[in-house]
Amino acid sequence: MNISRRRAIGIGAAALASAVTPARAQTAGAHHAGGYERLKEPGLVPRPPQADQQMVFDSPAPKAANPGRWITRAALPLPRSEMAWAAVVRDRMHLVGGYGEQRVDRPYHHVYDATTDRWLIASPLPLGANHVGVTELAGRLYAIGGFVEQNRKPHADCFVYTEDTDRWQRIAPLPQACGSVACVALNGILHGIGGAVGDTFPTKQSVDWHLAYDPKADRWERRAPLPTGRDHVAALPHAGLIHVIGGRVNSFLTNSNLHQVYDPTKDAWSMRNPLPTARSGHGAAILDGRIFVIGGEGSNRVYGQNEAYDLRKDSWEQYAPMPTPRHGLGAVAIGRSIFVAGGGAVMGGGIQTSIHEAFTLD
Question: Using one digit for the tens of pLDDT, what is the confidence trace for 267-284?
Answer without folding.
Answer: 999 999 999 999 999 999
